[in-house]
Design the sequence.
């Protein structure tokens, strides 16, 4: 039978899905390497927080520029550049001789991810113009991220067991190179915006300062003391940076984050629930990684296996979400996801060093399904609410909210752990916080979409 080339839509989906694998892989795989990295590079809990958040912080703060750059010069070249930067950064991570070098290389990884992810969504949005086709494509794309999430802890644990922690970064290189080759074969289905559109350099600097200082205060505040002069100065500077950022974005001609997008209640709700979902999920993922490796003394491979019921159900939920969203719409799907979150977190509330693993494992599928359902449904709603010419910026806002949530989750829950009398007490406080945030986000989601429905009906 003669070989039949893939149609343009499938080429786009294949290339973008593969790239999303390494982006999510590096969000989850590092968590099972926390103990070996700490032992090899003499890292404290705060140092480990920086290893995790340096990636997500750079990712979050530059996503908006990544989306805007893709809109300006074209999604395809920006996407390929992001993949190549990610590959280079992964090699530097693997070869890092010290903790500061590893953290710097993780920042470079975040820069690469910030270029490729919003451009991947822009390519998908342009290749699948109908709502049903877009929902299905985004569900598949997010499903590959779910596969990476599921495989990350297990693959990471196995690689660390056989080859050491540096191998978890080397594994990105062949995936990134194959992804670059696939991307070079797709058509540039997302045309660049008019050349007159300028990048918002001042807005970019302000958002980097605001995000970096906010996360740094959460990570280092407990150690330095909240009354420390540097902490108070940093707090004032962070608040000023956020205020100035909003002022600049409301006045500049080509804003990094167009505030008018938030006039849509659907866009605003999707952004907030994406942030909260990432905050509670990745914050507790970080804490539970420390719980298994520090409190229970489990090696990376056993820790990776312990997370399988959680991460496998993220994958299942991501694939089901597209089908459920097409059938019922995003409103009930996201609502169900947050209720699953609250139920699963409630089962983890009484966690201690002698808690039987089967009790933990029973809660993991509930949390995983909740996480998997929320992301594709919220993404479909948000991308459908944005203009095609602003698809890159809209995708940047969405993913910036998720990565900001991830960075804040690790920082906040790490601070709750550091301020507690024991790890078990810190985990209970964090779980209680996660339940409250999940229920609040669900309420906001229902009210925002109800208002949108009533406005449409009127």
Sequence:
């Amino acid at each position: 039978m003669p070989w039949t080339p893939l149609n343009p839509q499938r080429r786009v989906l294949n290339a973008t899905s593969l790239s999303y694998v390494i982006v999510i892989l590096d969000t989850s795989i590092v968590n099972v390497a926390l103990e070996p990295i700490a032992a090899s590079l003499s890292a404290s809990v705060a140092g480990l927080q920086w290893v995790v958040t340096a990636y997500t912080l750079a990712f979050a703060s530059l996503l908006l520029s990544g989306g805007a750059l893709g809109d300006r010069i074209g999604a395809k070249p920006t996407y390929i550049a992001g993949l190549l930067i990610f590959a280079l950064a992964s090699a530097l991570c693997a070869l890092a001789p010290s903790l500061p070098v590893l953290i710097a290389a993780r920042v470079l990884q975040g820069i690469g991810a910030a270029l490729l992810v919003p451009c991947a969504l822009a390519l998908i949005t342009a290749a699948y113009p109908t709502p049903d086709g877009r929902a299905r494509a985004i569900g598949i794309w997010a499903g590959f991220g779910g596969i990476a999430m599921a495989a990350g802890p297990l693959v990471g644990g196995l690689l660390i067991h056989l080859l050491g922690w540096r191998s978890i970064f080397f594994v990105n290189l062949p995936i990134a190179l194959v992804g670059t080759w696939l991307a070079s074969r797709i058509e540039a289905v997302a045309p660049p915006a008019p050349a007159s559109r300028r990048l918002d350099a001042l807005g970019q600097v302000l958002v980097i300062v605001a995000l970096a200082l906010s996360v740094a205060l959460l990570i280092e505040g407990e150690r330095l003391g909240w009354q420390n002069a540097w902490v108070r100065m940093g707090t004032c500077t962070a608040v000023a940076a956020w205020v100035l950022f909003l002022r600049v974005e409301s006045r500049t001609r080509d804003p990094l984050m167009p505030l008018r997008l938030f006039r849509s209640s659907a866009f605003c709700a999707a952004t907030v629930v994406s942030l909260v979902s990432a905050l509670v999920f990745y914050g507790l993922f970080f804490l539970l990684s420390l719980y298994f490796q520090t409190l229970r003394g489990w090696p990376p491979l056993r820790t990776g296996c312990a997370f399988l019921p959680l991460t496998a159900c993220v994958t299942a939920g991501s694939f089901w979400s597209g089908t459920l969203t097409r059938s019922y719409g995003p409103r009930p799907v996201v609502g169900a996801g947050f209720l699953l979150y609250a139920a699963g977190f409630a089962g983890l509330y009484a966690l201690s060093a002698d808690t039987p693993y089967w009790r933990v494992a029973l809660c993991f599928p509930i949390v995983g399904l909740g996480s998997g359902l929320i992301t594709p449904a919220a993404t479909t709603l948000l991308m459908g609410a944005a203009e095609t010419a602003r698809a890159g910026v809209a995708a940047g806002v969405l993913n910036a909210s998720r990565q900001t949530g991830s960075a804040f989750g690790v920082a906040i829950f790490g601070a709750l752990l550091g301020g507690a009398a024991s790890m078990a007490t810190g985990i209970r406080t964090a779980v209680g916080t996660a339940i409250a945030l999940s229920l609040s986000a669900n309420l906001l989601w229902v009210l925002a979409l109800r208002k949108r429905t009533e406005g449409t009906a009127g």
